[in-house]
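About this split. The held-out portion is used to measure sequence recovery: a designer receives only the structure tokens and must propose an amino acid at every position. Recovery is the fraction of positions where the proposal matches the reference. Here is one held-out target exactly as it appears in the evaluation file.
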């Protein structure tokens, strides 16, 4: 199965987006660079939001990114994931940001393959706050292979 087919089978919805204030995914040469996509979940990891809830929120962010990539490129096929940046709204003593952002990385591994085009570089960072109080924000860079 192709990445597009796998994503659809996983239940990721692909819907046309109307342009807004910012470009959700821009093409530069053979790269697709997403804006930060935020979780619906609000709150702070280490203060009422569990790692499991954060993981689901990061996965949701990546599903939103895949929809934006699809809008910019017309398909998920022929892409390689290069880099993911995960931002976690967390308390100063919370140290499991990497486990939260695994939600985004695991979805990419499912869609593009863990040892193939989905094997990516990543940063997972803690922040004192994120816009509108969301728990997680994720952005990604893809290479267009085809």
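Reference sequence for scoring:
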């Amino acid at each position: 199965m192709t990445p597009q087919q796998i994503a659809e089978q996983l239940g990721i919805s692909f819907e046309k987006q109307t342009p807004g204030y910012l470009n959700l995914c821009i093409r530069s040469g053979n790269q697709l660079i997403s804006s930060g996509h935020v979780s619906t979940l609000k709150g702070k990891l280490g203060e009422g939001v569990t790692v499991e809830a954060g993981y689901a929120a990061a996965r949701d962010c990546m599903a939103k990114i895949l929809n934006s990539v699809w809008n910019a490129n017309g398909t998920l096929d022929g892409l390689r994931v290069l880099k993911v940046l995960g931002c976690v709204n967390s308390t100063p003593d919370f140290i499991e940001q990497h486990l939260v952002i695994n939600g985004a990385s695991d979805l990419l591994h499912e869609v593009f393959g863990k040892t193939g085009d989905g094997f990516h570089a990543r940063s997972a960072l803690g922040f004192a706050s994120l816009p509108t109080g969301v728990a997680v924000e994720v952005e990604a860079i893809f290479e267009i292979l085809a």
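Annotator remark: Strands lie at 25-28, 31-34, 37-38, 44-45, 48-49, 79-89, 121-127, 136-144.
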